[in-house]
Design goal:
about 130 residues; globular; mainly alpha; Endonuclease III, domain 1
Amino acid sequence: MRDADLSLLRRRLLAWYGRHKRDLPWRRNPTLYRTLVAEFMLQQTRAEFALPYYRRFLREFPSLRRLAAAPPGRVLKLWEGLGYYRRAQQLHRTAGILAALRQPTLADLADVPGVGSYTYAAIGSIVFGR
């Protein structure tokens, strides 16, 4: 595909997205932490179903450091009903790894638990504009 065609496609896709995107809280203020929580919750879960869990989770754990410091049982309790509890365990472990860093970057996500190629690309796009 030529650069000009690719540029046109990009503009059209972004214009379509601007008109049709759903209003979701993790899109309003796309920080690394908020997006990470959303992406973990959205693995194998519909957005409409994950939304109340997301809101409760962020009320209880408003930051990466708060999640990292939380007891594992509390994290699992708030995740209860979302299923695939390994995601909650991996999110908790990932929060611990990232909270230990001064300012986590996209590169820091490459080898953390639960962040595969799709989640890595989504966070790279949403948070880091890549």
